[in-house]
């Protein structure tokens, strides 16, 4: 890991620390949404059935949104252009942002999992470490996809517009609304190439204490690497 990567990561963390609204969105919102869900289903067993899937959805969505907007802001403000005019490679910029948001993802995962498991009482049959690991990789995949999406947007509004185009189809096909093996064949095949599907599958297996999550985790990690590589290749040095 280069010095430039660490410097960029520290700068991003300092910026987000000063932006309290973004910090609250990253750390508090997923746990708040899960608490609201538990309140809605307080008199039923529905919460225990759908909470694991939504626990995978919320961090992925929040990290995608914040990362795509924050990265685009770097480009439109000229910060990216100034940074890359120095002896810094694109991979350093991507690595710095990935490292910064990885730290935030860890904090988000700890806060959300603590609220869901101990305050809201969601029972899981599998390992707590596996639950944390899946949640963290899920949030990092959302971060990587947000970095990639930011390369194709020209304004922050366009970055936000990518969310319904990129996240909503995954929400509908990840197995939350209908089990994936009960989807029409074409939609099932599409769901097989969406990262959120594997996050939901893994978190369900951990919650139920059944099945191995090794394959799901490897696929999520592969998505993470591919998204980061494409983000580095697609990044423009100058603002259009």
Summarize the structure in words.
The chain has 240 residues and is mainly α. The protein has one domain. The chain is built from twelve helices and no strands. It has helices at 3-18, 20-27, 29-40, 46-76, 79-84, 90-119, 128-150, 156-166, 168-173, 185-191, 195-208, 214-234. The two termini are 30 Å apart. The mean pLDDT is 84.
Q: What is the fold's blueprint, element by element?
A:
Blueprint (H helix, E strand, L loop, with lengths): L2 H16 L1 H8 L1 H12 L5 H31 L2 H6 L5 H30 L8 H23 L5 H11 L1 H6 L11 H7 L3 H14 L5 H21 L6
Helix pairs in contact: 1-6, 3-4, 3-6, 4-6, 4-7, 4-8, 4-11, 6-7, 6-12, 7-11, 7-12, 11-12
Helix residue percentage: over 70%
Query: Termini separation (Å)?
Result: 30 Å
Poorly predicted runs: none
Shape: globular
Number of domains: 1
**How many DSSP E strands?**
0
Strand content: under 5%
Number of helices: 12
Q: Please, what is the average pLDDT?
A: 84
Radius of gyration over C-alpha positions, nearest whole angstrom: 18 Å
Structural class: mainly alpha
Reported for the largest beta sheet, the result is: none
